[in-house]
Write a structure and sequence with these properties.
Tachylectin-2, Chain A, glycosidase, binds 2,5-dideoxy-2,5-imino-D-mannitol, 2 domains, EC 3.2.1.153, 39 strands, Jelly Rolls, 7-stranded antiparallel β-sheet, Glyco_hydro_beta-prop_sf, hydrolase, 7-stranded mixed β-sheet
Length: about 600
Amino acid sequence: MFHHRHGCGWPFLLLLLLLLFPFDESSLLRGQAAAADSHRVVLYPQSTRVSSIVSSKYRTAFHFQPPKNWINDPNGPLYYKGLYHLFYQYNPGSVVPGNKTWAHSVSADLVNWLRLESALDRTEPYDAKGCWSGSVTVLADGRPAILYTGADDVKNQAQCIAFPSNSSDPYLREWTKPSSNPVIRPDGPGLTPNQFRDPTTGWTGPDGQWRIAVGAELDGYSAALLYKSEDFVSWSRVDHLLYSSNSSTMWECPDFFAALPGNTSGLDLSAAIPNRAKHVLKMSLDSCDKYMVGVYDLEADKFVPDNVVDDRRLWLRIDYGNYYASKSFFDAKKGRRIIWGWANESDSSSDDAAKGWAGIQALPRTIWLDSDGSQLLQWPVEEVESLRRNETNHQGIELKKGDMFEIKGTDTLQADVEIEFEPGTMDEADAFDPSWLLNTEKHCREADASAPGGLGPFGLVVLASDDMEEHTAVHFRVYKSKHKHMILMCSDLRRSSLRSGLYTPAYGGFFEFDLEKEKKISLRTLIDRSAVESFGGGGRVCIMARVYPVALVDDRGAHMYAFNNGTTAVMVSQLKAWSMKRAQVNVKKG
Ligand code: DQQ
């Protein structure tokens, strides 16, 4: 979206926007500092006073979650000797954050998961308060190595290493921490010992040496520090940074990878990277995952974004909903890059305590760069489709203003729905105002699913009660921009539950789209009880949401509709829906 070379007036709009709405750095930095300070308490949006309903019916059927307790970040995903591995932050003793370990599950298909013993526990003084997030790198001899953050008794942080006790075991059941730990301490001027964490997967440079990035606060600003090593065990800090920004104070969970524009295949960072590849730096901040696309300057050993956008409200996002601390990996089995991200519960922590579990992972998504190399696209891994049952298929449904088309014959609590919307004309699209980009949630509240616009809102209503008092609307509005169209996608949770006090934002993101050429806007939404995960415009905007409808619990059932509330009629050229079977997710221990 912010790509200079592809012109289209967008950088001008951005400049204008920044002149009109100057970035209040101090208040944003205060917000960021507050978020960082509160890390030890509850960092993530959750309801505080909520009318309580505790039900196992909110438990997801095909999203990743362990049987009980608190989970957060996905850690060190990898494909190894025929199995996919997912490690994740896990509090073995409680449903609230704390005492993090690396729990471990394996899968042959990314859908069904077998729970293994914990991979990393808090056994050493340097990880007394937690084995925090990190990555796995497969070394030149084929051995995987974990790099994770150890938090000591005062939560000061250092990077630590662990190796499989037996690397011929495809399950990688047991991990050993060598005595050389911690391998990287927060030494050096400007570093804050308790803001130094989450090492990336390693990559090799032209000198054959390993490199990793570590998220940090440096002199009060956010940085991806760069470290180098010959042997992956002894590390030294490179005197420049991979990248830094003074618009925030700390980046958690950096992720760094290469991708070829327009190519859905992934690239392995430790293999030779083609010259025309771009690089992506993802960072977690402000309770969401943001990224920049750029080039990795081999000479300078630095990441150089294609566009430097100072105002971090305008940075691109991996997901515009409840999604954090994502981590990608190269899947050598299918030659693709897959990203995992965490979605916390947005009911209350007292409900979590009563349910006995908190947190899920969003679906594993294939991730790639669009053809002009300006933004990432994502799509649920194809294996998820193995859960689809009894397909419903409709074509050519015309939705005039106010029309709703009920999708029947599908299990509305566990479903996968794909729709293509084709506007009759684009003439009525309202004008786009770039200031909306600064607060897309606010704009989604204003561009409500029932507020008629020229072109849209149209979309999908899910988990709707008989009387529509409860429903979640996932919808689009099309705006005319200077050259192309700007499409707003919202996932509006404000009426998702009759329960009072729930955290129910109207999530939203914009994408630029050549609607004249493409003609259709696609929406895919996967409904999994308390999870509604949506992909708009072929994966240009993704929105993960957590919802807790009463109708889901009291067995009144729920309805699902395609709808249009815009003035212009919209044709649903294709609508497919499937019921989704329950996957075997961590039900058995191996
Ligand atoms: N969660 C981990 C940290 C990371 C944070 C601790 C992000 O390593 O920075 O559980 O959610």
